[in-house]
């Protein structure tokens, strides 16, 4: 099978150099995971269904198709996936239109990466309209590249978003750091061969070999990310 992922470029760098940083959006840079659940609860209430809080852990961090499909299945609501996706996106956009709060440490980390000219990509499973709206709060100047869930055929937990980001920036995935808040995103970054930092938000991320877990972005800075790449390369060699 021919891959739809472009070949990685040949950017020159020292063997242990951090080449780029890829960041998730919801729950990682912006405190919006609760917004999604509120939007889902609101839409389903209008459709005559009260969502049980137990479903929240299942849908968090996932792409729209998976989350919406799951909620249709468990509620039995008579609506198509496309129709529900439109309603959910509209409800979410209405909330973020009033502004979104940044996660602690997010603004400082983005500013540090820009100041040191570290290529940074925003890699999200959210739709393009939502990503573009949130960029008003994050600052589009902080990112060399943005990828949304509907920009690709396959999104997280598949590795495609991070492989695509690396290819478009011309960097080696193994020399890139990924920062994610959910197991879905962490799995995507690890499958792409990146060094992953998990900053759990709504649900815990279990420990695993090669996985770094921190309580907050306030624990993450450029020296920290560079050290992760250095240690990873030493382990490989």
UniProtKB/TrEMBL annotation:
Designated name of the protein: HAD family phosphatase
Pfam families: HAD_2
CDD domains, per the entry: HAD_BPGM-like
UniProt source species: Streptomyces sioyaensis
Organism superkingdom: Bacteria
């Amino acid at each position: 099978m021919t891959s739809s992922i472009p070949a990685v470029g040949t950017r020159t760098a020292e063997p242990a150099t951090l080449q780029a940083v890829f960041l998730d959006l919801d729950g990682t840079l912006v405190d919006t995971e609760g917004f999604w659940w509120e939007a889902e609860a609101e839409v389903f209430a209008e459709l005559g269904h009260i969502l049980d809080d137990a479903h929240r852990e299942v849908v968090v961090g996932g792409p729209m198709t998976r989350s919406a499909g799951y909620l249709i299945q468990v509620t039995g609501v008579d609506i198509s996936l496309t129709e529900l996706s439109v309603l959910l996106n509209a409800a979410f956009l209405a909330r973020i239109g009033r502004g979104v709060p940044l996660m602690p440490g997010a603004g400082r980390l983005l500013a540090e990466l820009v100041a040191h000219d570290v290529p940074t990509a925003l890699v999200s499973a959210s739709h393009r309209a939502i990503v573009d709206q949130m960029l008003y709060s994050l600052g589009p100047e902080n990112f060399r590249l943005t990828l949304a869930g509907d920009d690709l055929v396959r999104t997280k937990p598949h590795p495609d978003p991070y492989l695509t980001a690396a290819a478009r920036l011309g960097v080696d995935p193994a020399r890139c750091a990924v920062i994610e808040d959910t197991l879905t995103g962490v799995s995507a970054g690890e499958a792409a061969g990146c060094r992953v930092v998990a900053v759990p938000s709504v649900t815990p991320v279990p420990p695993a070999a090669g996985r770094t877990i921190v309580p907050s972005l306030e624990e993450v800075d450029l020296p920290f990310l560079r050290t992760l790449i250095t240690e990873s390369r030493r382990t490989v060699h």
